[in-house]
Design brief:
14 helices, single chain, mainly alpha, about 290 residues, two-stranded antiparallel ribbon
């Protein structure tokens, strides 16, 4: 029972992270030590699992899919998204710099703790780290699309966003911003607009099931190279997450700047430090 509660809390952390543009739920899963287990669990949701359900072999189904773990994480994610989306939407509107500062600290320290799991450094791992950094950091230079509520586009948005959400360093929310549907999805969650949420959810489910198989293969065959690439993604996402930026009203681009020293800036740096310490605390206590 204790482990289920802890997994629900970890799912809640992932859900909260996925709501904020620039923060990746996959990064939080990796830092909390549940990423590979989550991918393996999702990967077991296949036709063999369906056959076991239909044949009544529920015990084998539960064991193979790590079902209690998967349900706990999923419950935490959805409870967090639906309960925190309104609060986070308000905080991002009123205290955006402070909110982003805390998550900047989280992601900054995650680079070290994720990167240190690489067992052997080679020229390829260094190249993949730099490549991941350029891909994630380069996303900030992509101009966002306009909102589109067509069913097909919502399904595609759900699939792409979910694939991004489970990739450490790539923010599903930021990808939704680029696709133009971030505000539409957040509003749909707050208003329980099923005409938007159902096609988006279908796309998200299809995306995560198919993408998990690819991630399972990559992690099994090329673990160090994969971790190196993901670490680069995480490091590059710091550019997207930098708290001090202004949005251009003409083309939705961002202008980044170095802040002046004032009370808000000092609080922001304190929150960055708190974010760093939070990951250190999570890392030291993850086995417990």
């Amino acid at each position: 029972m204790k482990s289920i509660f802890i997994h629900i809390l970890k799912g809640a952390v992932m859900g909260a992270a996925n709501v904020i543009p620039g923060v990746s739920g996959g990064t939080m899963a990796l830092v909390m030590g549940i990423y590979e287990r989550l991918i393996n669990s999702i990967n077991q949701l296949n036709f063999n699992a369906l056959k076991k359900i239909l044949s009544g072999d529920t015990k084998s189904f539960v064991k193979d899919t790590d079902l209690y773990f998967l349900i706990s994480i999923t419950v935490g994610i959805f409870v967090s998204i639906f309960s925190l989306s309104i609060l986070l939407e308000y905080l991002l509107e009123t205290h955006e710099i402070l909110v982003l500062s805390y998550f900047f600290g989280l992601i900054f320290s995650s680079v070290y703790f994720v990167g240190k799991t690489i067992q052997k450094f080679t020229g390829l791992t260094v190249f993949l780290f730099l490549f991941g950094f350029l891909i994630a950091g380069g996303m900030v230079f992509i101009s966002p699309s306009s909102s589109n509520s067509s069913i097909l586009y919502l399904i595609i948005s759900g699939a792409i966003a979910m694939c991004s959400m489970i990739l450490p360093g790539l923010s599903g929310s930021f990808v939704l911003l680029l696709l133009g549907n971030y505000e539409l999805i957040i509003s749909a969650i707050n208003d329980l607009n099923l005409s938007v949420l159902i096609p988006f959810g279908i796309g998200a489910f299809m995306g995560i099931i198919l993408f998990a198989k690819l991630l399972k293969f990559i992690f099994t065959s090329f673990r160090d190279n994969t971790i190196s690439l993901l670490t680069g993604f995480i490091f590059g996402s710091l550019i997207v997450l930098w708290p001090w930026k202004l949005e251009s009203q003409s083309n939705n681009d961002f202008c980044y700047f170095i802040p002046n020293i004032n009370q808000e800036t000092l609080i922001a740096f304190m929150l960055i430090t708190l974010g760093i310490l939070s990951v250190i605390f999570i890392e030291k206590n993850s086995k417990n």
